[in-house]
Amino acid sequence: MANFLTILALTGNRLGGTLYQDYGKTRCSLDMSKKIVVSCEKCGSRNYSLPASSNKTTERLVLKKHCSHCNEHTLHRQTA
Fold first, then answer.
1. pLDDT < 70: residue spans in the chain
2. Does 35-78 carry CATH code 2.20.28.120?
């Protein structure tokens, strides 16, 4: 009985937005979405990454999140 991932690799079929290749050894995502990285204003550490929204905004995202390095809630701003 053939392995399910082997069959997908040979046929090149898509399964859940992911293309399985190389007999199931490597997996390439077809949904390459951009990420927004936010960093702490106090210490500058980059603690969080969020998926980018589809609407195009010019202003940077500002969130109040917990910083594990400062051990308190601080403002986190979107980095470049």
1. 1-32
2. yes
